[in-house]
Every structure is written in C-alpha cells, then in structure tokens.
Specification:
- By secondary structure, this protein is an alpha/beta fold.
- It has 2 domains: about 210 residues, Rossmann fold; about 180 residues, Rossmann fold, CATH 3.40.50.
- The protein has 17 helices and 13 strands.
- A 7-stranded parallel β-sheet has the order 3-2-1-4-5-6-7, sandwiched between helices. A 6-stranded parallel β-sheet has the order 10-9-8-11-12-13, with helices on both faces.
- α14 links the parallel β12 and β13.
Length: about 400
C-alpha cells in the first residue's frame, strides 16, 4: 500500500443503496493504493439485516477496507445529530491515531464536523467533499427555516469548513462558481476538484432486457417510462407524477415503473391524485445489485428537482445510471450542471419549468427522442465522458496525493 492512509467519514450508511453506489463503489478501488478506514452511520433497520452486514463486511475486508460502523440517531433531530458528531469525533480521532491517518475525507457537512476535530487532534489533512449546499438545501426542502437554530449552526460550520479545509470537492462546476455567493470563496492555496456523482459503468451499461423480469412486472409489451429512487424532499413529486400521467395519455402503450424504497401505498395514492391510472404504474423495490436490470427495462427516465439556488451544487446519481444504461431522460433546468450536459450531448429533453404549458410543449421532442435509434449510444458516450466511476476514483486518488505532498 502507498501512503497516505485515509479515514473516510460518511453519514450515509454503507448498507443503504446510496452508500453502496456512492461510497463503497469508490472505496474498494481506492483501497488498492491507499490504506482506507471508513467510518459510517448505519440505520437500525439496516443493522438488523445480519446477513447483509456480514456480506458487506466480507466484501470490504477482501478489499482491505477497514469498516467502523456506528448507529445513526434520527430524533430528536438536533440533539441526535449532536450526539452522532461527538461519538463520531471520539471514535474517529482514535481510529486516525491507530491507523496513522494522513487525510480525513468527509462526505458532507455532518462528517466534516467530525473531520475538523480529527484534523485538530491528529494533524491529518481535511478534505471537504461538500456534496452540495446542505444547510440551504434543508431550507429549500422545507425542513428548516433560515431563522432556525439548526440552519444558523450549520452555516457557521460551513464557514469553518471552508476556512479549515485543505482541499474541496464539488459535485458541479456551477457549485464552484457559487462559493463566492455564499461568502466563502475557496482559498487560492488549496485544490478544488469537481467530481460528480459517478456510476460504475461496468454495471450500469447497455445490455439485453431481462425478459423474465419484464414478464414478472407485467411490462413485456409496454413502453416503459422509469423513475428510480426517492420522490420526496427537493424532488418535485406532484409535478413529476402529473408529467408521467401526461406521457401515458400520449402513449397508450406506456407504463411507468417506479423503483423506490418509499411508501408504495402513499405513492399510489399521490399518483392517482395526479391523474396516473393504477393500471399504468408498476411499483417495485430492488437491491443495489439488481438496479441495472431494472433500468434496462426503461426507454425513458424522468425526474424533476426543485430549481432553487441551493441545488446549484447538486448532481443526481440517477442521471449517471440512466445514461450509462443508454436511457435518455426528461429533466428540468436549473439544477447543477445537468441541464447543460443533457442539452450539449442530445441525451434528453430539458424543461425550462414544470408548468402545464411547458410539459405539453415537451411532448413533440420526447416523441422525437423515443424514435431516435442513436439516442442510446449518445447517452452511453455522455456517461463515459462525465460519470465514469473509474475516472472519479482516479481524481480522488490524485487529490489524496496532492494533499499528502503539501
């Protein structure tokens, strides 16, 4: 193994789908060149899956990744998070000293609150992998107000992270250009790297449709329009469901496949209220390893995100996964770099807004997209150019080397 040793801190559990795709997928190849210890906070429901815990532990051990798993606490929100930070900092400092860690890589704001303590007490370099503008995202999602204690505390953290970071990672170029608007321009003496949410394109890639899966889901003869992941928080739930309903009116052979861990009964009710008939929708949940087969069933992926200022730094993982499998998308504009990328590569339709008039006007370009036999190849090329996990891993490894050299 080459130096530096890295302590990677994630507030997302490795046992969750997001942790599998956006943490484990990076750490396994990074551990070929770096001693990696990962500290994660796992949900109780995931820890209860003893077989899943053992399987992931075995995978990480084989990859020479040391895994420290702590229990995530949800409520009451502020005290629970404070407890997790104190617990994480205590355990993290001990782990960093034991493994002689040179870099503490913090994935987001709560991990960064832990990382600053590790830096202070061990002199490890602090990599602020910000993942977007979290405090303002919480306000825009309706969870906090700007007058709330949680918001004011995390904005104070934000100033500290920018001041103490030895390196910064943003998901988008647009996010980097926003640093100054936050009042925290990055210091000129530290590296700033743009690394979007990538996908393993050896898994999320074109391939034959799983005919048995299509039959099991009742989709064998359908034009499948897909939605994957959460449809809450800053996702435009009502507008997305209304648009999916409108697509089903235009394409009688269409069915909508939702692959999500959200409450299916509530989603059925909300979809019906939006005009999406029950017989035109299929709801499923899938394990992380099953996701490529589900995405390959789809001819079109749809998702809309609130186009608020805080989302300038965001990149949806599902965009990389759709494009990697050769599936074009319909998205809305104003979120990170996504709209520009989709337009530039001709891999989807970008709505200026989600008004009824704009939705109606999009139907013609959507029809053209569905009839374009070369669209799939363009999607794959765009994914390889922007979202290849191997490229993202190489950027992180190079950044580790730069931090170690400074």
């Amino acid at each position: 193994m080459t130096t530096p040793a890295v302590l990677y801190v994630s507030y997302d559990g490795l046992l969750e789908p997001l942790g599998q795709s956006q943490v484990v997928a990076y750490l396994v190849p990074l551990a070929r060149d770096h001693d990696v210890t990962v500290l994660s906070f796992e949900k109780p429901v995931d820890l209860a899956d003893a077989e899943g815990v053992r399987a992931l532990q075995a995978r990480l051990r084989t990859a020479n990744v040391s895994w420290i798993r702590l229990r995530y606490h949800k409520a009451p929100s502020l005290p629970a998070t404070a407890f997790d930070i104190v617990h994480g900092a205590t355990v993290g400092v001990a782990a960093a000293r034991s493994a002689r860690v040179g870099i503490v890589h913090a994935r987001g704001y709560v991990p960064s609150a832990i990382a600053v303590w590790v830096k202070r007490l061990t002199r490890a370099k602090f990599l602020f992998d910000m993942r977007g503008f979290w405090p303002d995202e919480k306000v825009d999602a309706g969870h906090w107000t700007k007058a709330s204690l949680a918001y004011r505390l995390t904005k104070r953290w934000e100033r500290m992270f920018f001041a103490q970071a030895d390196g910064i990672v943003s998901l988008t170029e647009t996010g980097v250009r926003t640093f100054g608007l936050l009042g925290h321009p990055a210091r000129r003496d530290i590296p700033v790297e743009v690394i979007p949410t990538c996908a393993d394109l050896t898994r999320f890639c074109p391939g034959p449709v799983d005919a048995a899966l299509a039959v099991r889901l009742g989709l064998a003869s359908s034009l499948v329009i897909g939605y994957v992941g959460t449809l809450s928080n800053w996702y435009l739930r009502e507008a997305t469901l209304q648009y999916l309903a409108r697509l089903c009116v235009s394409w009688p052979e269409a069915k909508v496949l939702f692959v999500t861990r959200e409450d299916h009964e509530r989603l059925r009710a909300d979809a019906a209220a939006a005009g999406l008939a029950p017989d035109r929708m299929v709801l499923a949940a899938a394990a992380f390893e099953e996701m490529p087969a589900f995405v390959r069933l789809m001819r079109l992926g749809v998702f809309f995100i609130k186009p608020v200022p805080s989302k300038r730094g965001s990149a949806a993982t599902k965009l990389a996964e759709f494009l990697g499998c050769g599936v074009p998308v319909v998205i809305n504009d104003g979120v990170g770099d996504s709209g520009d990328l989709v337009r530039r590569h001709g891999v989807g339709v970008v709505l200026a807004d989600v008004t009824r008039e704009t939705m109606e006007a999009s139907l013609v370009p959507v029809a053209r997209l569905l009839g374009d036999s070369s669209a799939g190849a363009r999607c794959v090329a765009a994914a390889r150019a922007h979202f290849d996990l191997a490229v993202g891993v190489a950027k992180y490894s190079a950044l580790y080397a730069r931090l170690a050299a400074n």
